[in-house]
Specification:
This protein has 168 residues and is mainly beta. Helices cover 8% and strands 49% of the residues. The two termini are 14 Å apart.
Length: 168
């Protein structure tokens, strides 16, 4: 059985170059899934570069899970259209928090780890995990898969650092 490890806050910041699913635009929203936890952003009408700035809290377990994201176009008279999906392993974030706990307090703005695009994530560009305002923070741009174009920006904060110590 998975053991609770920590809390994370995921901010869905914005999207860029999302695909057209209506006549000339789309009405996008995002669904986040982490294990059996789900969250949904509001719908941004008639926008291919939406700004959500919505924050959601999740519990993460050991072993660290994969955050999944799905983007949709809201339709009123038929099923919502898929606008792509993405995933991100939270293991690098947890490992960076553990390293920071082992080594002690890092100075403000210290980069704890770099994560590059790979099979265990849908990163559009390299991502840094940093120590900011007393939290381990990762800023990411995720490239949407199974679609012509689109990226989603997330900011992820590990908020319960005391729980990030290795379990025995």
């Amino acid at each position: 059985m998975a053991e609770k490890l920590a809390q994370i806050k995921v901010t869905v910041v914005k999207g860029r170059h999302l695909v057209i699913r209506d006549f000339m635009t789309s009405d996008p929203y995002v669904i986040l899934k982490l294990g059996n936890q789900t969250a949904k952003t509001k719908v941004i009408n008639c926008c291919l570069n939406p700004v959500w700035n919505e924050e959601f809290c999740f519990s993460i377990s050991e072993p660290a899970e994969v955050l999944k994201l799905e983007a949709f176009d809201k339709d009123h008279f038929k099923a919502d259209d898929k606008m792509g999906n993405a995933h991100l392993s939270l293991q690098p974030l947890v490992a960076a928090a553990r390293l920071r706990n082992i080594l002690g307090v890092a100075s403000e703005g210290t980069t704890l780890r770099k994560v590059i695009p790979g099979r265990d994530n849908c990163l559009a560009v390299d991502s840094s995990i940093s120590w900011m305002n007393g939290e381990v923070v990762q800023d990411v741009w995720l490239r949407l898969c199974d679609v012509e174009s689109g990226d989603i920006e997330l900011k992820i904060k590990l908020t319960d650092l005391s729980c990030a110590a290795p379990s025995k």
